[in-house]
Each structure stands twice: as structure tokens, then as C-alpha cells.
Amino acid sequence: MNTYEYVAVLTSIIIGLSITQLLYGLAQIVQHPGRESVYWTHIIWVAYMFFTVVWWWGWQIALSSVEVWSLGLYLYVTCYAVILYFICALLFPGDMGDYDGYRDYFLSMRQWFFGLLAAAYVLDLGDTLLKGSDYFRGLGISYPLIVIVVLMGCAIAAFTRNEQFQRGFAIVALGTQVYQAVAYNATIG
Q1: How far apart are CA 70 and CA 90, in angstroms?
Q2: Is the dihedral of CA 188, 142, 110, 100 positive or negative?
Q3: 8 A C-beta contact, residue 130 and residue 7
Q4: What is the pTM of this model?
Q5: Whole-angstrom Cα distance, residue 8 to residue 149?
Q6: Contacts 24+ apart (CB under 8 A), 50-53
Q7: H or E element: which one contains 51?
Q8: Beta strands in 5-153 (DSSP E)
Q9: Exposure pattern of 147-163 as b/e (b: 16+ CB <10 Å)?
Q10: What is the spatial distance between Cα 32 and Cα 41, in angstroms, rounded to a whole number?
Q11: Smallest Cα–Cα separation from 119: which of 167, 79, 89, 159?
């Protein structure tokens, strides 16, 4: 195995745990529909994160072209996967006893959630640059524009309880992920 393959195995495990966290949380909602009240904005973010971690894993194939892996690069990619896991873990806590449903929980944890989401987007800029300038340019102007819009949205969402904004931002964020997956499909790998 080369260095990239070792890194890919570790990050795949972390991403697998992220997906497990999301699927387990959704299964709990299905298995116990009356236990906690569902908050549709929260469910949109769950879909967003599922889509994000699945596509993140696919987009990491482009790192196979990196010829020299330093400890810093190894830690960078690993930390990126860990942040994605923490975002997923924040969506489904182990105990909801202190909260009155997912709405109350999500709105009370919004600064953590959107702070980590913003950090993930900043890391994504670096991750994209690591894949090479041709790769970055190949994404076109839409990529940096999406990053700017999402970072601004995270800054606002972290500090507002306005549910219309929260729901609208969740829909926009999910839409940008779907757009990127479709538009950049040719650049995966």
C-alpha cells in the first residue's frame, strides 16, 4: 500500500462512522416516532451531511495524485474527516433529555454546528488546492462563490434563531451540494 491508500483507509473509517451516526439517528426517529418531535430543518441538514460525506469520500480520490505525503498533509486530511464526523455527531446527540425535541436541540447547538460547518468549508478550500491548480481551476467560478455564500450563511445561521432563515439556508446549502456533485462529476477521481 502507498501512503495515499493508508490515508484513504483511515479517512474511510471516519467517514463510515459519520454515515453510521446519521443513519442510526434517522433509524431512531423511524423506530420511535413519538419520542422526539421532528424538525424539518434538522432533517434537511441530515440529508445535506449525508450527501456531503458520501461525496467528500469520492472527491478524495483526487488526492491519489499527491506524490509526497508529509505529516502535515496527513493530519490535514484526517482532521477534515474528523470535523465532518463531529458535524454529523452534533445532528444526533446520544441523549435528548435536556431538549424539547430536535428543533430545540438544533437551535441550541447552532453555533457549534455552523462553526464546524464553516471550518469544514475553509478546510475544503485547502483540500481543493492540494489537488492541484488545474483541479481548482476546473471547478470554475461557482466553487469559490458557493464557499463564500455558505460561509456567510453559516455566520448568520450561527447567531439567529429565525426559522425561515434556518430552513432557507438549509435548502440552499443542500442545493449547492447537489449542484456541485452534478456539475463537478467529471472531476471526481
Answers
A1: 30
A2: negative
A3: no
A4: 0.91
A5: 29
A6: 50/19, 50/22, 50/23, 51/174, 51/177, 51/178, 51/181, 52/84, 52/177, 53/15, 53/18, 53/19, 53/22, 53/84, 53/88
A7: helix 40-59
A8: none
A9: beebbebbeebeeeeee
A10: 19
A11: 79
How big is the chain, counted in residues? 189
Spell out the per-residue pLDDT of the chain, length 189, in tens. Answer: 788 888 889 999 999 999 999 999 999 999 998 888 899 999 999 999 999 999 888 888 878 887 888 888 889 999 999 999 999 999 999 888 899 999 999 999 999 999 999 999 999 999 888 888 888 888 889 899 999 999 999 999 999 999 999 999 999 999 998 888 887 765 444
* Separation of alpha carbons 92 and 29, rounded Å: 10
Residue entry with cell 462529476: 185
CA distance readout (Å), 155 to 28, 41, 111, 147, 159: 30, 17, 9, 12, 7
Selection from 96, 120, 116 nearest residue 157 by Cα: 116
19-37 as b/e, with b when 16 or more CB fall inside 10 Å? bebbeebbeebeeeeeebe
